[in-house]
Amino acid sequence: MKAEKTSRTAQYMAFFRALETARNINDRLFSDPYAIHFLDSKLRLAVCLSKYSIVSKYISNTINKKIPGAFSSGIARTKYIDELLQTAISNGAEQVIILGAGFDTRAVRLDFLKTIPVIEIDHPNTSNFKAEIYKSRIGQIPENVRFLQIDFNKQSLDELAIEHNLDFSKPTAVIWEGVTNYLTEEAVKSTFSFISKFAKNSYVIFTYVHKDILSKPESFLGGKKLLEDLEKLEEHWTFGFIPDELPAYLNQFDMQLLEDLGANEYRQKFLPERAEKGYEFYRTVFASK
After folding, report:
1. Residues in the chain with pLDDT < 50?
2. What is the model's pTM?
3. Where does residue 47 rank: exposed (0-12), middle (13-18), buried (19+ CB within 10 A)?
4. How distant, in Å, are the alpha carbons of 70, 189, 282 from that of 276?
5. Which residues contact 268 (CB under 8 A, 6 or more apart)?
6. What pLDDT was estimated at residue 231?
7. 14-33, pLDDT tens digit by residue?
């Protein structure tokens, strides 16, 4: 996926989080006061106006019409990964690595990470922009955060690890969100091989799409239109898993599957009152070493 496309994808997820944060304090799933800083002027205005119920409903309906289920799925997934990460930290993970970090703000918005080293790895374009946003709009880059930059056309994760002396001896929680579906099978395998080098009792939280969305998109609500829209944006989904095959796949990297939930399941878990369908092909996994 192109670097500029990565930033656009990251901005949409930040938009979803900002909209959730603008909801009434008693009605929102989480608060991310930093997300709005990563938005362009039009999206920031939309967030500000979303405090009016008629505008909020219009925004939600528009998103759901274009990408059925993506909004509620993305919000529920954010909360789900937050909780999985807290479980990993409670179970002894001593550092966090976020692969393809985009505009993930967990390092600054989650209190339980304030004293945990967080290493964010991403393309230089996205990483530099994020660092500038932290400096100009938030004030500084948090002391517990390191930004490492990688261009996969020129460097591997293993080479990056050597260059920056990553500590594989610490139990580590790795987040790999919204990335695997844009990679090749070989790139996914190589990344799992990298993750498997971390110490025993490490965890990985990652997302993937059901493999059938690639060959039979019409079998999922909104699937065919979504892939057509992605083609127009030159954002091609190239990889997926069959859920039943995932445990054996992870075992080859000495990882044990702990949870594998689809959008319907984590949406029902965290947003049972927000009736919305779609995005069932998107899944989130929690595994341990």
Report:
1. 1-6
2. 0.93
3. buried
4. 9, 34, 14
5. none
6. 76
7. 999 999 999 999 889 999 99
Q: Which long-range contacts (CB under 8 A, 24 or more apart) does 38-43 make?
A: 38/10, 38/11, 38/14, 38/103, 38/130, 38/133, 39/11, 39/14, 39/15, 40/11, 43/11, 43/15, 43/18
- CB-based contact 83:54 (threshold 8 Å): no
Strand 282-288 versus strand 95-99 pairing type: unpaired
**What residues have CB less than 8 Å from 178, skipping those under 6 apart?**
9, 13, 100, 102, 207
* Tokens at 250, concatenated: 């992870």
Nearest 10 degrees: Cα torsion 112, 113, 115, 121? 170
Q: Which of 5, 2, 10, 8 is nearest to 177 (CA)?
A: 10
Residue 54 DSSP one-character state: H
Place of tokens 């799925």: 73
β-strands 145-149, 172-176 pairing: unpaired
pLDDT score recorded for residue 5: 47
Identify the pLDDT of residue 235: 75
> What tokens appear for 57 in the block?
């409903």
Residue 244 gets which letter from DSSP?
G
| Residue 39: both structure tokens together | 């938005």
String of DSSP letters for 129-163: HHHHHIIIIISS--TTEEEEE--TTT--HHHHHHH
DSSP secondary structure of 174-200:
EEE-S-GGGS-HHHHHHHHHHHTTSPT
* Length of the chain as a residue count: 289
**What is the predicted pLDDT for the residue at 226?**
85
